[in-house]
Amino acid sequence: GFEPRKQAALDALDFVRDEQGENSEEYANALSSLVELFANSAHWKEAEEKTRELIKVTEKVKGQWPLADSYRILGYVCFMQNKLDEAEKASLKTVSMMDADNLQTGSKIQPLRVLGDIYSQRDDLDAALKTYERLYGLTEGIKENHPGIYQDVAASWLTFTSAWAITPKQRNTIVWDWNGGAVIVRMIQYTQPNLSMVSAGIGGAAEI
Description:
By secondary structure, this protein is mainly α. The protein is 66% helix and 6% strand.
């Protein structure tokens, strides 16, 4: 269960603190394990608290745990608590850091999904569209090795675009390939959306 795993992680963290100190790579690794446990168990408040601590440590200690990953998790756990401004700030920082460091493409998927969801909830559709276009472009490159992620993003796109009432005169067609079939997305101008479809179809990012 969760409680035994939590206690084991806390005990490991205390041990490393006593042996190596808080400004050590070992402490950062132990703290990151606790952060992942909280986040993957949907203990968002605790995850946020420990992630903020992890950011302070990883800003001082250069180890195996990238600072960008700390901000990625912070953006996600803030989003899951509906702290949208904080989630946006952390996710934008994540993407910027990952772009600068040339980190793996897959690492950018979660913060981009968070940003796309935030912009959708705010009705900032231009920003949402640009974000989802970039997100789709990233998943296009990994679809053979990660078809589940690719299909999930493509399905989110379909839900996102179908939630908007668009007349034929407003349409601009982009054709994407999805498992050998044509996915046609038409969007250029917007009217009021079916917000229930937007929130139901796009909400929720991948597990930490």
